[in-house]
Specification:
Length: about 290
């Protein structure tokens, strides 16, 4: 068959295939299968690493070739030139779709040329069975060190409940050492969350008296040696929470550094609270 006859046959079959004639599409595919194979072997040597990365073989290319023929038949315009020319462009399009799984991104290859590849994360993922240390195959794998958000949240919630109960018990003992009236005021204010007015009403005293008693109780708590020792231990224990590999990788800080940071944060909070109180008092004086 001459080139002219081949072109006429392709054009006729493409026209019929575009109307949904499956037999014509099959014939068009069979007629151009050899051309598609030659396209692959012209493309593959220059893009071997890209094809291997996505697992594209000659058989895969041939299957994609059928879809290229189908697309070319549906979109072919005889006035634009030979069907084989349009099929070559359709094949390039199909290759990009096959490599990108329909989700594309551009990158520059070793040859300095811009190519299109998959933007699908599944094509660029790692196995969770890979060891963290490539030189220690028996060491922990990526999967073993991946955090479980649900489990971590549940663990944190349980830890906070335990810590809160322990803190409440320690403070309760310290308040008992302050005296009956101070203990009652502090429990109403900080355990029950009552305002000074509500506390005063409940105890039969004025809000001003509540403030005086509260100030006296806080002074006693700050000088309580048992409470201070508990505070130091609690500070260190909390610093040891979450000191695994992932925490170190994300923060880059040691336990000692975290203790120092926590102390600095506490000190900064104290300074900020004093500053806020000073500004508030100045504002009140200006308003008088």
């Amino acid at each position: 068959m001459s080139a002219a006859e081949q072109q006429a046959t392709n054009a006729a079959l493409a026209t019929l295939a575009a109307t949904g004639n499956s037999y014509a599409l099959g014939q068009l595919w069979e007629t151009n299968r050899g051309l598609i194979r030659s396209m692959f072997w012209k493309w593959y040597p220059h893009h071997k690493s890209l094809a291997d990365q996505h697992g594209v073989t000659a058989d895969d290319f041939e299957q994609e070739g059928f879809f290229a023929v189908q697309y070319a038949a549906r979109t072919y315009d005889p006035a634009a030139g030979a069907f084989s020319t349009w099929l070559a462009q359709a094949m390039q399009r199909q290759i990009q779709l096959a490599l990108s799984n329909g989700h594309r991104r551009k990158f520059v290859d070793e040859d300095g040329k811009t190519h299109t590849t998959s933007a699908d994360p599944l094509n660029h993922c790692f196995s969770l069975d890979l060891p963290i240390d490539s030189e220690n195959a028996d060491g922990p794998t990526l999967g073993e060190v991946q955090p479980d958000p649900a489990a971590e949240q549940a663990f944190t919630a349980a830890e906070e409940r335990i810590s809160s109960a322990q803190t409440r018990a320690v403070l309760g003992d310290a308040l008992d050492r302050c005296g009956t009236i101070e203990s009652a005021v502090m429990r109403h204010r900080f355990f029950d969350g009552l305002s000074m007015a509500a506390t005063g009403e409940k105890m039969g005293i004025t809000p001003a008296q509540v403030r005086t008693i509260e100030t006296r109780a806080l002074r006693k708590l700050r000088s309580d040696p048992k409470l201070r020792r508990w505070h130091d231990r609690e500070l260190e224990n909390r610093a040891w929470h979450g000191v695994g590999y992932l925490t170190w990788r994300e923060t880059g800080s040691s336990v000692q550094e975290r203790v120092t940071e926590r102390l600095e944060t506490i000190e900064l909070n104290k300074i900020a609270a004093k500053r806020e109180k000073t500004l508030k008092n100045e504002h009140l004086r200006e308003g008088v």
